[in-house]
mRNA-capping enzyme (Camponotus floridanus), 120 residues
Amino acid sequence: SKMSNENRGPVPSRWLHCPRKAMRLIQGKFLAFKTPLSSAYDNQVPEECRFSVDKFFANLRSQKIKMGLWIDLTNTTRFYDRKTVEDYDCKYLKLRCRGYGETPSEEQTRTFVQVCRNFI
């Protein structure tokens, strides 16, 4: 509905022209990608630019990549539903970072490294 779209707010600035994801795995373990947007944003995003959780996992499947842990570094939960990620049998962790020119704190960095070590 129109109401729920308004509550979600606008597409993040610079999102449309940001690449969807890294071309290849980093160290064979990590894949950097921009935050997907749920279908609630479809009316703000041209079809060829859409990038949803489902589209992301379909792309991984086509490359025979299995994602086991998803670390969300955004400072909000409005872009997509974490349950969509968990539906793909992928663990989800929210690690809120400010972004926009701010580097993560030492504590955030330590947490990220520890979580990754424990998972790998």
In short: The domain at 39-119 is CATH 3.90.190.10 (Protein-Tyrosine Phosphatase; Chain A). The first helix runs from residue 2 to 8. Strands lie at 69-72, 91-94. The radius of gyration is 15 Å.
